[in-house]
Amino acid sequence: MQSYGDETRPLAALSLPSRIVIGVAACAVAVVVAMHLAMMFLHVAPSNTLSKQQGSLISDYVYPEYEQNWKLFAPNPLQQNIAVQARAQLRTEDGTTRTTGWTDVTARDGQDIRHNPMPSHTQQNQLRRGWEFLVNSHNAQNQATGLRGELSERYIKRIMMLRLDGEWTADGGRVERIQVRSMTTPVSPPPWSSEKISVKPVYRVLPWWQVTADDLPKGATNQ
Amino acid sequence: MTSPTPQQPAEASQQTQPSQASSQSPSEAPSSGRPDENRHAPYEETRIERAIGRGFARVTGRAMAPYQTAVIRIGFATTWLLFLVREWPNRHVLYGPDSPWSLDMARQLLDANHAFSVLPWANSSGWFELVYLLAIVSSALLMLGWRTRTMSVLFMIGVLSLQNRSVFIGDGGDNVIHLMALYLVLTRCGQVWSLDARRAKRAASGATDEAPALGRDLVGIVLWSVLGLALAVAQLLGPYGLTWFEHGPFPHIGWSLVFWGLWATHGLWWAVQRYAPGEPRIVLDTLAKLAHNGALLVIMVEVCLIYATAGWYKIQGSRWQDGTAVFYPMHLDYFSPWPALSEALGSNGLMVMLITYGTVIVQVAFPFTLFNRRLKNVLLVVMICEHLSIAFLLGLPFFSLAMIAADAVFLPTNFLTWLSARISGLRKRLVGGAGDPGPAGPPEGGEPEARTQTGGGGHTLVG
């Protein structure tokens, strides 16, 4: 690298075609960088005149590889603990059905995270973000909206089967249907605050889902 | 626009104007039309033209910030490497065959959003293991700076493939790594602190004539051929994602075009160095510098966007206004690995308020402090400390590491060279006792000298 003595040779010493190539390239880089940065800015900025006008242009450019969300704990940090719980309806060998009690899967994540300096994405993100995905792709009546809604239902179903199938069917039987609900508990205000809020949990209960063989992740059966 | 630079040196000596102030100052801007000025020279540049010329000379002159780009390369590669190693036992559930987000579901989503991933290419666990292993190996080699450019491409493929296959498993840290993996490909991030730099230095000191040394780059030729062959096979099988003119990282540029383009450029660069070391080499080298400087600017602005967005949205939140915001994340089950500690820290209202306000102030202010070196450095220290505490308190080590790596692009060169001297000094002391380092070469091998002028860039075939 040191031997590249010509490294410092001024561009002026180059032939005209070379200078044209470099000049054109410099302009191209400038244009591309400016456009890219403008797109990134409009993507992270609040919805505004320009981004409303050019919405599809911006999203075509940004998605999927440059998607980003930096509203970290903003505008307000999450102030509720959202616990996702599940129960199952089993068909036992003698033909009867049995319904299990609710299992708080989020609480188990919490237990795994406690005193863990390096929580895994499986503990910290899988269920938390999966539930976010489900909530975002369902309407208030708990109906799936579009492909993403259906995918999110399958995803949550499969997460539950991965984690609980072995436990549910430990005494035999087969999971026929599962039901999922979320329990939202507000974080009680800081001790010095005079704020009064109800810390009573609020439930969102989803309808029973039929479980098919397709919903069994490979790992679920041998747990 | 081709080059206003030619006149530069002569111009500078002629002009004795001491005021180097703002180029926009309209009262002083000389217009080339004035007769009295035409007497001096046949053509006199305006200030704006000269400013453009200076800027042009700078962005084509060298690949800027060699130490900063090296440190972010090492930072992101290390973060991703540690993450992959940490998740090794869970890899099948996160990205592999046991994932509740099955490959089938991933394909449905990818067919709709066209994100790039090589994992849908085959539904076998063997393929998955291979990709995961390659992601680990390419991260490690990018960290070390071995064939940096090639590894940066493989690193990007690894990051995109794993993350896009399971999009609902990541967090902010993954998001930063995703973006930076794309940008790093266009930078010369191996100019210093890399095995490439060490090899180039040895080649330069060993051989007075560089050409034979370059020609013997067997490893590079083999690597280039193997990767070209792999790409050709993939292209022939026509799997998901390899299209020419659509669904790529840039409008009308598909991933096939990107990969073949990068591959062909490496080949061209090698051929030009070997057979046409004169002007063609300078032109290619200048184009690479331009790309590097453009990508560097994008990286720096991206970091500013992250902080600006995080800060400005916080200002609008009532909890950030009333000074209690920091209290809440510490009491969320998913982010409180040390409940007793969170409890103790959260019990002091004044402290919580100071941290809450401090966070917002630092985040909003950061982009503006770039105009003041000293203030910027103070804020950098504050932000790095805050991320270190987030890593521990909220149980987000990889997110925090990624953010610290992003911050590092703004670290001052003085500090980085000082750090490098300290580290190599330490290494010398440790290795020195063991006698001659032998085949490992001089202990200060990968150590940089102040190569700010030349800018390095001695990439071998695929380096």
Automatic annotation (TrEMBL), chain A:
Residues 94-125 are annotated as: Disordered. This is Uncharacterized protein. The chain crosses the membrane at residues 20-42. It comes from Streptomyces piniterrae. Keywords: Membrane, Transmembrane, Transmembrane helix. InterPro entries: DUF5819 (IPR043857). It holds the Pfam family DUF5819. Residues 106-115 have a biased composition (Basic and acidic residues).
Automatic annotation (TrEMBL), chain B:
Keywords: Membrane, Transmembrane, Transmembrane helix. Residues 454-463 have a biased composition (Gly residues). The chain crosses the membrane at residues 64-85, 126-146, 218-241, 253-272, 293-313, 350-371, 378-396, 402-421. Residues 34-45 have a biased composition (Basic and acidic residues). It is a multi-pass membrane protein. Residues 1-32 have a biased composition (Low complexity). This is HTTM domain-containing protein. Residues 1-45, 434-463 are annotated as: Disordered. InterPro entries: HTTM-like (IPR011020), Sporulation_signal_mat (IPR052964). The keyword Transmembrane helix applies. SMART domains: HTTM.
